[in-house]
Amino acid sequence: MATYKLLLLPGDGIGPEVMAGVQTVLAALAETGLAHFETEADLVGGSAIDAHGKPLSNATLAKADAADAILLGAVGGPKWNGVAYEIRPEAGLLRLRKDLGLFANLRPAICYPALADASALKRELVEGLDIMIVRELTGGVYFGEPKEITTLPDGSKRAVDTQVYTTAEIERIAHVAFDLAGKRSGRVASAEKHNVMKSGVLWKEVVTAVHARHYAGIELEHVLADNCAMQLVRRPKQFDVLVTDNLFGDVLSDVAAMLTGSLGMLPSASLGAVDARGTRKALYEPVHGSAPDIAGQDKANPIAMIGSLAMCLRYSFGLGEAADLVDGAITAALAGGARTADIAGDGSKVLGTRAMAETIAAEL
Ligand code: NAI
Ligand code: MG
């Protein structure tokens, strides 16, 4: 059996607590014989600032580059509010994404049957919901130049951000979305604003061309991003794979997140390009942050982090059976009534981070 090298970057706040949950699950997974891992842990974010004066050391970046996949907890917290902008904890995470070329951000929004009443929407709208948002992560308005604030002759100011996309950038994210859809329902919705943005015109044109050339069996629908936000709240189950740019993806994935209950439930994957050996750089992390308000109290929900491990098994290593086992263990633990405080209803018994991870490991 292949041995995979995992770099664990627990980070700050609840990061180390939920990462410990991953280690509990990895130990149980090793016993199944389905997968074998070598893990190494290192610092990122505030903990790295404390140790080396910057949020991501070159040595850590080199380890990230050499690893088969990276699992990251969360970075940041009030302790580092005063540090310079360039070396703030989040800069470590942004550098990892940028330097490793992690252009495809996959954010599933799944509503577990046991939690359908925890959603912001009515049960019948979200029960069985399973959407995969594919967000372009290294281009668009967050990175385009010029990006500046200048002072006008009258002393007032002018701010500019620039939305830039090239054919190649749109093609590669479209391929990720269509490939995923082929393994799911076979449906892709692409969201942009071609009615008011040139980048939207190109986005629609390129996605249409990629579809026509390579994915005849997949159904493609174009939807305007603002209408998409409305549809996500009105009738979310109409979507399966939803592909969109960096800015719209940021907003739409947060909307989708709230359909499912708690931030503590949501995993993510950030993938790079497939190289000549057929492998790709990849980082897996929960959507949530370091939750300073509950850090160190054994209260954090480890499911987003453990779900990120399941995505890692599936997308980096093709270990679908092991991934299904982890996802199934999460579903079974929830069905059995296991709840951390963030998803507990009235009268349910509340588990701590460790006990929730152990319950999932036992189900596995
Ligand atoms: P947050 O996601 O850390 O917390 C928001 C709320 O959700 C809090 O009430 C928290 O207790 C709760 N929450 C989050 N994860 C949870 C979990 N696993 N289980 C139970 N409850 C959970 O966002 P916030 O408070 O805006 O940011 C806190 C720090 O985290 C900041 O320094 C921020 O910059 C950083 N951050 C880091 C991210 C990352 O590492 N990718 C992403 C978002 C924020
Ligand atoms: Mg966001």
Automatic annotation (TrEMBL):
Q: Where is this site: Important for catalysis?
A: 142, 193
What are the EC numbers?
A: 1.1.1.85
Which parts of the sequence bind substrate?
97, 107, 135, 226
Q: In which pathway does it act?
A: Amino-acid biosynthesis; L-leucine biosynthesis; L-leucine from 3-methyl-2-oxobutanoate: step 3/4
Question: Which residue range or ranges hold the Isopropylmalate dehydrogenase-like domain?
Answer: 5-360
Q: State the reactions this protein catalyses.
A: (2R,3S)-3-isopropylmalate + NAD(+) = 4-methyl-2-oxopentanoate + CO2 + NADH
Keyword Calcium assigned: no
Q: What is its main location?
A: cytoplasm
Instruction: Supply the enzyme class, top level.
Output: oxidoreductase
The coenzyme or cofactor needed here is:
Mn(2+); Mg(2+)
PROSITE patterns the record matches: IDH_IMDH
Record bears the keyword NAD = yes
For the ligand (Mg(2+)), the binding residues are: 226, 250, 254
Location comes to:
Cytoplasm
What task does this protein carry out?
Answer: Catalyzes the oxidation of 3-carboxy-2-hydroxy-4-methylpentanoate (3-isopropylmalate) to 3-carboxy-4-methyl-2-oxopentanoate. The product decarboxylates to 4-methyl-2 oxopentanoate.
| Subunit details | Homodimer.
What family is reported? Belongs to the isocitrate and isopropylmalate dehydrogenases family. LeuB type 1 subfamily.
Q: Which PANTHER family match?
A: 3-ISOPROPYLMALATE DEHYDROGENASE
The entry's protein name is 3-isopropylmalate dehydrogenase
Gene name, per UniProt, is: leuB
